């Protein structure tokens, strides 16, 4: 049931232009431009509170921007709903991972797929598919009938990522998805991210960890206080520069 990628399956550029978002008196995003090209891993980097998750939620259709344009290829998104994001083949793993704890691994991994698609497959095949997807991320075979509430925090995160992969997205958005992973889990997730970009998809990788961003990103957009400081391509930055962009020149100079 894996999707066949062909030339005709051209992935569209995802663009946000002039995005503003306020929560009461807090300005979370103040005129953000962020654009992702097919075939790239684009990192969104910034300190806590810089607006990364707000941008992610707009891409996922769970928040509506106060101002600005979001386009996927030629299509402008005007209604922000998870369903619209799904139609544009955008899958998101949120920072606060959403799982149904009292449901099985299989139900959680295949959750969100069209019921017809989900239930057309025999039970045994559904379990096998969920097990296989999760094994790619964990390296171990877990019983797919296990309840998610019996899994560790790391495994729950992996279930959430497996669910996003199950949607076979063009654009995969991962908000701090490595935070709960061990090194092996991170390496496996990086393999999935790289594979998606290599076949022409888009990976939006959000992290506040510079070393990870240095390792995986083709381009980095740095956010500070809800504004884009810069977007830079790999080989056009080093760690010290990214740190300075993230925290501002004074903090970086003081070595804080
Ligand atoms: N639902 C919300 N209600 C009020 N303030 C929010 C909400 N979501 C985010 N914020 C605020 O918006 C700013 C950006 O937050 P967020 O996008 O979560 O940043 P990041 O993911 O980079 O840590 C922060 O000041 C945060 O407190
Ligand atoms: Mg966040």
**Low-confidence spans: pLDDT under 50, at least 5 residues?**
none
Secondary-structure element pattern, one letter each: EEEHEEHEHHHHEHEHEEHH
**CATH classification class of one domain:** Alpha Beta
| Apparent shape | globular
The kinds of small molecule bound in this structure are: adenosine-5'-diphosphate, magnesium ion
Query: Which structural class best describes the helix and strand composition?
Result: alpha/beta
Strand segment count? 10
Query: Largest sheet at a glance?
Result: 6 strands, mixed
Query: In CATH terms, what is the fold-level topology of one domain?
Result: Rossmann fold
Biggest sheet, spatial arrangement of strands: 6-7-8-3-9-10
Q: What proportion strand?
A: 15-25%
Radius of gyration, whole Å: 18 Å
Number of helices: 10
Kindly describe this structure.
It is a single chain. Helix 5 packs across helix 6. The chain has a domain at 12-87 and 210-244: P-loop containing nucleotide triphosphate hydrolases (Rossmann fold, 3-Layer(aba) Sandwich). It contains ten helices and ten strands. The longest helix has 16 residues, at 123-138. It is α/β, with parallel strands linked by helices. It starts with 13 loop residues before the first strand and ends with a helix. It is globular, with a radius of gyration of 18 Å. The strands form two sheets. The chain has a six-stranded mixed beta sheet, sandwiched between helices. Magnesium ion is lined by residues 52-53, 95, 175-176. Magnesium ion binds next to helix 1.
Question: How are the secondary structure elements laid out?
Answer:
Layout: E1 14-23, E2 26-36, E3 41-45, H1 52-59, E4 67-72, E5 75-77, H2 82-87, E6 90-93, H3 105-110, H4 115-120, H5 123-138, H6 153-166, E7 171-175, H7 183-198, E8 202-207, H8 210-216, E9 219-224, E10 227-233, H9 239-247, H10 249-254
Parallel strand pairs: 3-8, 3-9, 6-7, 7-8
Antiparallel strand pairs: 1-2, 1-4, 4-5, 9-10
The chain binds adenosine-5'-diphosphate and magnesium ion.
Residues 52-53, 95, 175-176 line the site of magnesium ion.
């Amino acid at each position: 049931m894996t999707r066949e990628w062909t030339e005709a399956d051209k992935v569209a550029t995802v663009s946000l232009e002039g995005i503003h978002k306020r929560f009461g008196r807090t300005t979370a995003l103040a005129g953000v431009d962020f654009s992702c090209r097919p075939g790239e891993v684009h990192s969104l980097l910034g300190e806590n509170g810089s607006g990364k998750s707000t941008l992610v939620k707009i891409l996922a259709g769970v928040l509506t921007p106060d101002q600005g344009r979001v386009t996927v290829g030629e299509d402008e998104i005007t209604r922000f709903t998870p369903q619209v994001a799904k139609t544009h083949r955008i899958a998101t793993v949120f920072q606060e991972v959403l799982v149904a704890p009292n449901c099985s691994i299989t139900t959680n991994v295949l959750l969100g797929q069209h019921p017809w698609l989900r239930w057309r497959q025999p039970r045994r095949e559904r379990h096998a598919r969920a097990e296989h997807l999760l094994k790619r991320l964990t390296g171990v075979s877990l019983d797919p009938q296990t309840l998610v509430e019996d899994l560790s925090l790391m495994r729950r995160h992996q279930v959430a990522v497996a669910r996003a992969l199950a949607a076979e997205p063009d654009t995969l958005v991962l908000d701090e998805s490595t935070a709960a992973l061990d090194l092996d889990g991170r390496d496996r997730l990086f393999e999935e991210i790289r594979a998606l970009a290599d076949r022409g998809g888009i990976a939006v990788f959000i992290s506040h960890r510079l070393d990870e961003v240095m390792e995986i990103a083709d381009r980095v957009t740095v956010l500070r206080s809800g504004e884009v400081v810069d977007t830079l391509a790999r080989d056009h930055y080093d760690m010290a520069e990214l740190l300075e962009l993230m925290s501002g020149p004074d903090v970086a100079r003081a070595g804080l």
